Amino acid sequence: RRVVRQSKFRHVFGQPVKADQMYEDIRVSKVTWDSSFCAVNPKFVAIIVESGGGGAFIVLPLAKTGRVDKNHPLVTGHTAPVLDIDWCPHNDNVIASASEDTTVMVWQIPDYVPVRNVTEPVVTLEGHSKRVGIISWHPTARNVLLSAGCDNLVILWNVGTGEMLLVLEDMHTDLIYNVGWNRNGSLLVTTCKDKKVRVIDPRQQQVVA
């Protein structure tokens, strides 16, 4: 009986980067939710953090590695924990956040490090009746954002005006786990607790497969 693992990676070992190349002292959120809790773009990295009385995330310039100051300004505005964040693919200074407080907020992040917390979102999107766990920007259309919540709804928003473009209801019988767009944004795919994967054409508002 072989004891040695049959793997070509068994002699591969990772080398941690030096302390000045990593981000240290970030109190990552302890919310039990199936999300990556972070998002990155060519300018910034954003990480959902613990915060007393509400939800917050921290935004750090990619170049600003090392120990993060305890008083580093946060993006705060939600009244309950933040569950998901996503950078806009068309503007590196715009990020959206989804929260347990049933809202989605869109933020403008300045290029300089602000002196105090960012508390005023550009727009607040209200339409879900339960917590919102998933957000995803449309890959090609500007200002179009998708959100999915525990109310089993998928909503498409026009972020510029703050209004709903589409509400996809009665398609999911249970909690939506994840959502993804195809490359040009003509179709989206969802995974659901009812053990089904659905390919949806949002323009026709129907499940294609």
Automatic annotation (TrEMBL):
It comes from the Eukaryota. Residues 2-66 form the DUF1899 domain. Belongs to the WD repeat coronin family. Coiled coil: none annotated. It comes from Pygoscelis adeliae. The keyword Repeat applies. Keywords: Repeat, WD repeat. One of its GO terms (molecular function) is actin filament binding. PROSITE patterns: WD_REPEATS_1, WD_REPEATS_2, WD_REPEATS_REGION. InterPro entries: Coronin (IPR015505), DUF1899 (IPR015048), WD40/YVTN_repeat-like_dom_sf (IPR015943), WD40_repeat_CS (IPR019775), WD40_repeat_dom_sf (IPR036322), WD40_rpt (IPR001680). This is Coronin. The keyword Repeat applies. One of its GO terms (biological process) is actin filament organization. WD repeats lie at residues 75-109, 125-167, 169-209.
